[in-house]
Amino acid sequence: MLIEMPRHTEIFGSVKIHEMQRVLKIDSGRFANPRAKDIPFEDIKDILRRFAIIVPVKDEKIHLLDGVLRAIPFDCTVIVVSNSKREGPDFYKMERDLVRHLHDLTQQEILIVHQKDPDLGFAFYDAGYDHLLRRDTIVRDGKAEGMIIGMLLAKALGKDYIGFADADNYIPGSVREYVIDYAAGFCMAESPYSMVRLHWRYKPKVVEAKLYFQKWGRVSETTNKYLNLIMSAHTGFETGIVITGNAGEHALTTKLADILSYSTGYSIEPYHFVCLFDRFGLGVKNITDTDAANAGIEIFQIETLNPHIHEEKGKAHINNMLLGSLQTIYHCELCNDYVRSKVLEELGDILEWEEPKKSLIMPPIGELDAPRFMKMLESTAETFARFEQGAIVSEGEDKAYLKEESSHTE
Ligand code: GDD
Ligand code: MG
Questions:
Q1: Peptide bond into 89 cis (omega under 30)
Q2: Least crowded by CB within 10 Å, which of 25, 287, 341, 347?
């Protein structure tokens, strides 16, 4: 791949945020120049083999999930975490059948589990991590909650890199690019604590029966503005470096995933920045993680070549996401009164000037015994299945489904 070098890097305490980099060629010809870095495909492949891609899914069209799964490069392990409904019709069964069929045809390693499986909730309880559980020890709704499940499975498999791809993407080819872009970011990283966040070149919309190639959405524009304002107000120098505040499409090293805390639902992505600012930002005293602070935390922001076309989920959904993002920003410890007053102004319409609530924060997962967690799922969870690379019959194949299938054929 040929990718622009970042023109500038903002250093905020131990957090290094690189300016946006454009993909110049997905497949390059090994002609580097001072403004661009050439990354050989073998280097990208090395990363892909140590990479798990998590696909969170909730009631999406099966055709979309199918395209996404088929687009993820073979060398990666895919982890599907579903929160889809299970009756009238059973979406999860369709997803699982799709996964099984795809594995039969391709032999790519793929895992799948349902977020509401009681045995999954119990495995979290057993691990002493009840931060994403409801009172009845079932995992809550929420995209972040699904992502944490996936991250623990990736850790259990010993993966060094973890990435995310939404299941509602209409362009499979763009999903392939996202994964390659993540890998390229990791090839450039100097710190073992790094993260790659994607900025879509365009997010096309239909306007007056024509495609309009829009660049910014309202939520991301607002989130970025206030994340930048926190830094500007703190350093006294204005910056616009953050352009990926809401990047659902992102990836991180397992080492970084181990030490971050996570905010619930859709606020997980902006909270990455808030968490890093609070723990490693400029002027933070009592840094607890000196290893990471010494190595520095590196954030890459890569602009994709492909546009992003996904499902439109309505105004209430957008407002909810905006509120979640700004709530986490409002409660950032580095936020001063000025920034808080600006956030309140922004939320005026939605909150009627009430103070935003604190989002629920889930602590780091680094200390959890991930292999034990996965073993428990393999032996107990009805919805869990692991289809290994090159294996015709999967190890964690769920007995209930097999029984169900054999009873149909009897
Ligand atoms: N497992 C699980 N559990 N998955 C979920 C849940 C859940 O409770 N809720 C949603 N998902 C899945 C969706 O099916 C989809 O694949 C993905 O998570 C993203 O959800 P969307 O509802 O499509 O969100 P969006 O497209 O509006 O927002 C996306 O892009 C934003 C901007 O980049 C999300 O990725 C946001 O987190 C992101 O900020
Ligand atoms: Mg979407």
A1: yes
A2: 341
Output the six-digit token pair for 365: 């997962």
Question: Could you give phi then psi for residue 386, rounded to 5 degrees?
Answer: -125, 115
Q: Which of 16, 37, 19, 18 is nearest to 28 (CA)?
A: 37
3-class secondary-structure state, position 408: helix
- SS3 call for 111: strand
Residue 347: predicted pLDDT: 87
Kindly give the number of the ligand 1 atom that is closest to the alpha carbon of 219: 32
Kindly state the average pLDDT of the residues 192-199: 98
Alpha-carbon gap, residue 366 to 148, rounded angstroms: 11
Assess whether the C-beta atom of 168 lies below 6 angstroms from ligand 1. yes
Query: Do 251 and 181 touch, CB atoms closer than 8 A?
Result: no
Task: Tell which atom from ligand 1 comes closest to the C-alpha of 164.
Answer: 35
* pTM listed for this prediction: 0.94
Q: Please give the Cα distance from 293 to 11 (Å, whole number).
A: 12
Region for 236 from its dihedrals, namely left if φ exceeds 0, alpha if ψ lies in -120 to 50, beta otherwise: left
More confident residue, 406 or 314: 314
Spatial distance between the Cα atoms of 266 and 335, rounded to a whole number of angstroms: 21
The C-alpha angle 43, 44, 50, rounded to 5 degrees, equals: 100
Determine whether the shortest distance from the Cβ of 215 to ligand 1 is under 6 A.
no
Ligand 1 near 6 CB (within 6 A): no
Shortest-distance Cα residue to atom 25 of ligand 1? 313
